[in-house]
Amino acid sequence: MASSSDERYVWPWTGIVANIFGKPKHEPVECDSMYWLRKFEQYKLEEDYVLHCAEDPTGYVVLEFGTEWTGFTQMMKLDTDFLVDNHGKKDYYESRKMGYSSGLFGWRAQAEYYNSEGLVGNFLRQKAELKTTSMVAQDSLNEKTETLDHLYGEIGSVNKKISDMESKYIEYYMSLDRMMKEIEKKRDLLHQTRAEGL
User: Fold this and answer.
1) Nearest CA-CA partner of 58 in 19, 23, 32, 90
2) What is the pLDDT of residues 52-92, one digit of tens each?
3) Which of 106, 115, 2, 95 is nearest to 59 (CA)?
4) What is the distance between the alpha carbons of residues 75 and 99, in angstroms, rounded to a whole number?
5) pTM
6) Which of 22, 62, 130, 170 has the fewest Cβ atoms within 10 Å of its own Cβ atom?
């Protein structure tokens, strides 16, 4: 069995809700994306996609939680909430085998679904990629390192400009100082010449 750091997740972090057209009669059938964003707003979704086709008329909503770690946490919370209600992925497939599936079922999207044939698998392969949590952490670290390298480069560039400005200022100050000394000499000479002329 693979450790949790080896598990491959659909990234950006993604969840799947199934059976959107097989809900109890008292719930409205909704194909509108905004309906699902509101319904699952507690999970702080970034995007959702309603998928349905004639071959699988139950319908799906693919929920996107974003690329940050808060999205991973929300995806896992959705998965756990459906599992606790006995409406997880395993429950969905068992109910379909028995020919009866009522209500919504949900789970986190992982390699199994990403690599599956059909509507959801095809959609996931077009929109996302598979990553382990350690890959995401490494990508995040690499991105931060690149940002720091860029900032260090910018700081170096600014420091060089400051150094150049300091050099020009010192050069200008010394030139001004020489000029002032020269003016002072000429003024002293002028005063001396006037004093001697009197």
Assistant:
1) 19
2) 877 777 789 999 999 999 999 999 999 999 999 999 999 99
3) 106
4) 28
5) 0.68
6) 170
